[in-house]
Design a protein that fits this description.
Elements lengths: L1 H16 L3 E5 L16 H12 E2 L5 E7 L2 E8 L8 E2 L2 E6 L2 E5 L1 H9 L17 H13 L10 H7 L3 E2 L2 E2 L1 H7 L3 H4 L5 E7 L2 E8 L3 H15 L2 E6 L2 E6 L3 H14 L8 E6 L2 E7 L22 H9 L9 H11 L6 E5 L2 E7 L10 H13 L4 H8 L3 H13 L3 E4 L6 E4 L2
Parallel strand pairs: 10-14
Antiparallel strand pairs: 1-4, 2-5, 3-4, 5-6, 6-7, 8-9, 10-11, 12-13, 14-15, 15-17, 16-17, 18-19
Amino acid sequence: SLAEREEVLETITAFSNTRGGTILVGVDDHGNVIGMDFKKGELENLENLINQLIEPKVYPDFKIIPYGNKLVLKIEVHEGFNKPYFYRGACYVRKGNVTRRLHRNGILELVSHRVTFDSLVFEGEYEISEELVEDFLKKAGERRRMRIESENIQTVLKKLNLLDRRKARNGALLLFSKECSSYFPQAVIKIGYAEGGKIVDEALIEGPLQVQLEEAMSFIRKHIRKGYVVKGLERVETWEYPLESIREALVNALLHRDYFSNSHISVRIDEFGITVENPGELPPPLEIEDLSREHPSIPRNPLISRVFFYMGYFEEWGSGTLRMINSLRSMGLPSPEFSQGKGFFKVWIRSLKSLEEYLNENEKRLLDFVRARRTVSRRDCELFLNLSERSVRRFLSKLEGLGLIRRIGEGRKIRYEPTG
């Protein structure tokens, strides 16, 4: 039945968020085998629903077990590496024999205890570069964020929690091995420069993450315009885009990407701006709208994030997107556009082309509506477009980020007006 199917999908999600477990379809709560009637294609249909409705993806094992003249479906669910998991946007956990739905605080707690890629122990032979460890100690010491008296590699890695009983965690190799990309082929940046929609220069950037960051910055500097302004008696170098915003976007991609995914980070430079895309959407409960205001830091890879902080690659936890926005606005550029979907997160640092070229049809209609009415509420916009509150919020946030409209008032009295 539909109710039974819903219960199975919720339970699969709950087991993925907890410690795994076994579901027996065709056995009642008292352990009595009642069996189930398997129609043709029913198991395939269940597998399709799991694939479509549970995010991130889970891969349970199925086995049909005969019991007398009855059939029982055994579903073996493994604990997930990429918690939290959601079914139809809701998060479930298992408490004893009960499946419970989690809300915001519970989801945050689940995120804080999940297994992270950088904390897993690397099984196999590996090398750690003494040169890279020394460079870390130098940078961390200069910024007075961490001081380790010993230069012994084992001591340093242990202090950074990158060793587990003398075995290196993945994070140690991502940061301190020159062969990092051979251990983790997905840990690379593919970067390209396009003219007229065609890629004319590209590179595959490999190696430890901090090296990837610097090489990506070098490639980008090669392909964006540079000028000079005179300040007092000095001639000061300026760039088409603030370098700190570009660096922030790259740092975020390297630290917050999903390393369990086989996909790579993609960077594209063209006449419309710079896009940086990484596997891994925002961790719940963060939403795109949160990035334009103060928000909590929920690092997907906390061990490598901490090392980047010690080395001075970012200043404060959870403030990177705000710094990006402010540095772009200080140069008269539009705010970056953040988006996500299908397992990826993207930042678009935009050029000064006509802002309205970036709008889809609904966004253009909404902008015309605000300009015609001069002041509108969100509800006015919902009625005008005949779309959901979520869609209208997204459109308004984009128009506001582009500087085409402004928000006035607070709480229930918030209204929007054109800037021009």
